[in-house]
Structure to design on (298 residues):
């Protein structure tokens, strides 16, 4: 847990610095306005910022927040907000995970890192190259498969993605594979034909393995901040997203977007990416995240 805290603190460094600067400028004579401005600057989103600011004002009026206890109160509220929708993940054999998102979010590398983590935990994992639009996407996943020592099921570019997934899942069942991680093609949430294709892939999974897909993970680029919420809403509606992976957290001061995702989408954050290496994909633990974001600001 300590290692996770340290790594998250590094990844959230830019966001924590920004929050510290805004709150220090207020001298921690915090008002509703200064708190709301600091939260907005870290991209928690207007709804979350306003809600927390209102709660802070009310708590202070009741005497529940006193001078010196502001950070403790904020840390508790952030932790509670992030834990609200953290439901259990259904299990399956094999456990099928669809990794979805727009281009450029780190979707393929995330799929490979998830497979690598499964292998390291002693589970037999397989990667499926369902992005058949680009030959380069298949090659990228195969390269990552070698890096994390996980086999990749792929067919030639242009093959129907549903056929690739169906064949891969049937083979996984026959071989007793534990985890199947499917890398789908990056697609804009506004392209309805491509979103429909994603729905088809989900149905194919269900035909091949009962209850599949057990997880649909949406990969979001943290550097886009709350601008990514529109695409997230569409993927949730059309692809049945069950969790979010927030990547590139180490390259932005917009780490507060985690709160916006949890509050406005009602979908839990499952993983966060804080670097390029396979070990830089970290499980999301609300308490640890809240501590990493706010500890040391006072």
């Amino acid at each position: 847990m300590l290692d996770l805290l340290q790594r998250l603190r590094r990844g959230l460094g830019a966001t924590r610095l920004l929050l510290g600067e805004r709150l220090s400028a207020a001298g921690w004579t915090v008002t509703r306005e200064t708190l709301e401005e600091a939260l907005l600057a870290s991209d928690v989103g207007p709804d979350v910022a306003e809600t927390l600011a209102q709660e802070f004002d009310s708590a202070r009026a009741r005497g529940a927040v006193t001078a010196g206890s502001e950070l403790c109160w904020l840390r508790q509220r952030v932790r509670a907000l992030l834990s609200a929708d953290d439901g259990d993940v259904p299990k399956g054999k094999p456990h099928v995970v669809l990794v979805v998102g727009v281009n450029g979010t780190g979707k393929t590398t995330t799929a490979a890192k998830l497979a690598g983590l499964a292998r390291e935990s002693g589970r037999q994992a397989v990667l499926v190259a369902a992005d058949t639009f680009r030959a380069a996407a298949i090659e990228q996943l195969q390269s990552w498969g070698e890096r994390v020592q996980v086999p990749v099921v792929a067919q030639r570019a242009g093959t129907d993605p549903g056929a690739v997934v169906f064949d891969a899942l049937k083979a996984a069942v026959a071989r007793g594979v534990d985890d199947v991680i499917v890398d789908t093609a990056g697609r804009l949430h506004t392209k309805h034909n491509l979103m429909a294709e994603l729905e088809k892939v989900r149905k194919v999974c269900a035909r091949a393995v009962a209850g599949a897909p057990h997880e649909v993970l949406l990969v979001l680029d943290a550097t886009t901040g709350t601008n990514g919420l529109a695409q997230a809403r569409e993927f949730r509606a059309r692809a049945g997203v069950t969790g979010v992976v927030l990547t590139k957290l180490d390259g932005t001061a917009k780490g507060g977007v985690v709160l916006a995702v949890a509050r406005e989408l009602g979908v839990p954050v499952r993983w966060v990416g804080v670097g390029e290496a396979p070990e830089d994909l970290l499980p999301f633990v609300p308490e640890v995240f809240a501590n990493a974001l706010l500890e040391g600001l006072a």
